[in-house]
Amino acid sequence: MGFEHSVANMYFLPFALIIKNDSSLLSAMQTAGITVDTSHLNYMGILDNLLPVTLGNIVGGSVFIGLIYWLAYLRNNKKEI
């Protein structure tokens, strides 16, 4: 489903943007047989990722977690009154 955490992406994406031009790191990765596509690592790519991920985290945190708490606590209190 592609669940991502916006706070983690706020660290990992700028970090990747910083190190993408490090030739020694890229050559070490190539020697290890790791291929990395850095074509989407730019400021617009980061914004295109952070905007929907952050909105999804807000909706998921407020709606779904709020719904679970309502089902667990408030729903039971209404039956007793």
Contiguous uncertain segments of 5+ residues: none
Number of domains: 1
* H/E series: HHH
Structural class: mainly alpha
Number of strands: 0
Taken from the alpha-carbon principal axes, the silhouette is elongated
Number of helices, where a helix is a run of at least 4 consecutive DSSP H or I residues: 3
The major sheet is characterized as: none
Distance between the amino and carboxyl termini = 41 Å
Helix content: over 70%
Notes on the protein architecture:
With 81 residues, this protein is an all-alpha fold. α1 runs antiparallel to α3. The protein has one domain. It is elongated. It is 75% helix and 0% strand. It contains 3 helices and no strands. It starts with 5 loop residues before the first helix and ends with a helix. The model has no long low-confidence stretch (mean pLDDT 85).
Give the topology, please:
Blueprint: H1 6-19, H2 23-31, H3 43-80
Notable characteristics:
single chain; 81 residues; mainly alpha; 3 helices; 75% helix
Structure, briefly:
With 81 residues, the protein is mainly alpha-helical. It has helices spanning 6-19, 23-31, 43-80.
